[in-house]
Structures are given as C-alpha cells and as structure tokens.
Amino acid sequence: WLSAYVNTSPTRPAWTFVVDAVLNTLKPDGVNNPNDVQTFLTFWAPPTRGTCASRVPKEIISMLKMARKHNMSFAPIKLSQTHKQQLPAWLHLGALPRTYHKIKDACLKRTHEVKTIKDLLKVSNRPTTVPHHWENHDCVCGQCISDRLAGCKNPHKCISTAAAIINNLTPKFNPFHCPVNYGLTLTHRRLEKNTRARTQHRGDIVFDPSVSEKSQLAECFRIFAGDSETAQTPAHRLQRPNQGRGQQEPPVEIYTDGSCINNGKQDAQCGSGIWFGENNPLNKAVRIPGENQSNQTGEVAAILIRLQSVSPLVPITIITD
C-alpha cells in the first residue's frame, strides 16, 4: 500500500487519490485547495491519533504509522530540474523558516492557482518572459491585465512573493541552484576499463563520483532515513589547499577483509580487518555490532571505517576481495 501510495507517475492507482482526499480533510489552516497537501512530499504530517485521526479509516492510519515506524521520507540525493518543479509549492520540504506568509500567499493560491514549484516559476519569471512587463503595480502588459481581471490587486507583488518563496528553498530543492561541475565524471573509456576489471576480476576499478538522477519521484523515497540523516544541501567537493605546483599527498593503499562465523545463518557474527602495512598503528580488527551480519557486511564496514581515518584529499586505493 505504502509503495503504491507514494507513486506519482500516471500509473498511480485510483484508490490513492481517495486517500489524498481523505487526508486533505485534516490539512492545516491556510491550505485552500484539496490538492495542495501531498502527505509525504511536504513537512506536514497527518495526525495518527486523536479526534481528527478518528475520522480516518483505520487502513490509512495503519499505513501512516508504518511509514513513521520505518522513518520513511522523501530523501533524494540529486533532483533534476523536472523533479524540482513537480514538488508542491506549499509546505515544501526544503522551505526555510518564515518562507510562507498567509496574507501574501493567499492571492497566489486563489487567483494564480499556484500548486507546484513549476507554477511559482511561471509567475516569478514573468519579468523575463512577458514582453513589455513593468516592475511596478501599474504594469499594463497583457498578463498583468488578465490577472487584475481575475481578481489580483497587485500582480507584480505576487511575482515578487513567488520569487521570494523559491529563493527561500534549500539548494537541493531550489530550481535556481545549479550544481558545481567538478569534472570528475568518468569518461566512456574509463567506464569500459571498469567494466573489464569487474568481469575479469583483474585491474583497478576507479570510483565513479557521479550521482544519477531518478526517473520518478517515487524512487526518491527512503526508509530508515530520519530528518537528522537527510541533508538539505548538496554535497560539495573539498578544495585542495594551495601547496605549490605539483605537490599533493602521497597515495595510500588499504587492504580490507571481512569474515563471518555461521555466514548466512541467524546467529551469524562478522568482523572486519584493515591493514595499512607491517607494524602500522592504523592496522585494526573490528567486531561488527548489530543484526543481519554477513561477510559482505564486514567487508563494507572495513572500507567505511578506514576511509574515516584518512584525509579526504588523499588518493586511496582499496584492495579487497
């Protein structure tokens, strides 16, 4: 149910729209249109207990509780411009404090029928897209005249309000924010070498730092990802200090291995080994805590532990099986 509900594609089941309608009866004050609130795409969480929740079918409440139990949240690593524009304009997950103003936003909701970020962009971009637009309340361009006839008293004020809302979104969600291109994406030739190294089990595999964009918003939902684990700003590459021409840290080779007793069984216990070199104080053996243990868990844990012990600017080669 939960997986089908967060599906935002055209194949979304009909019953999910009924759930939307039911949940929107619990929407907070100031949200006028029934489609304004999309539960898991906003910072508003429907109540699962109390008087309001008692009006909601128990199946829907059960679905909401399941989502909260597993910390399901919208946690994309990277969003395309198309996906950014599909997100709701109101109660936005990336909105900073004091982004919204009940009185100023009322005309955008009522007259301009703004529901998504795409709608906000359409309003805010008018000075650059509509010919003969004047940046004052007396503008006589065709679009501003139409807005006044529809009931907007000050179209340019609404334009400024729409732009202010977009500018108050965190960089990950802001359609005006363009990620920095560090030129680290692997070339086609390097990708082919990586493929051969994997299939032949021989040679180096160069880490590809490129982050792919998802094709659907539904693919951006994560479980076990609470607010504290979800970054609101995109990651940036650290800049190397100016050490002089041609100077850089010497490369480091790290050998890692994971082992597991009773691998594949319920009582499996795994550990990790990290080896830098003979008599190196950074050599370490680690017992891995937690459930769902396996030799792969030990292997990955060894790599993560060792990466945390070296400078992020040091070239690293990881030798593992």
From TrEMBL:
Q: Say which enzyme class the record assigns.
A: hydrolase
Give the E.C. number(s).
Answer: 3.1.26.4
In terms of SUPFAM superfamilies, this protein maps to: Ribonuclease H-like (SSF53098)
Q: Where is the RNase H type-1 domain?
A: 248-321
Alphabetical UniProt keywords: Endonuclease, Hydrolase, Metal-binding, Nuclease
Region listing for Disordered, in residue ranges: 231-252
Which GO terms of the molecular function aspect are on file?
Answer: metal ion binding; nucleic acid binding; RNA-DNA hybrid ribonuclease activity
Catalyses:
Endonucleolytic cleavage to 5'-phosphomonoester
Record keyword Kinase present: no
InterPro entries, per database record: RNase_H, RNaseH-like_sf, RNaseH_domain, RNaseH_sf
Its BP terms in the Gene Ontology are: DNA replication, removal of RNA primer
Keyword match Transmembrane: no
One Pfam entry for this protein is RNase_H
Q: Which family does it belong to?
A: Belongs to the RNase H family.
Name of the protein in question: ribonuclease H
Q: Source species, please?
A: Suillus discolor
Upper lineage is: Eukaryota, Fungi, Dikarya, Basidiomycota, Agaricomycotina
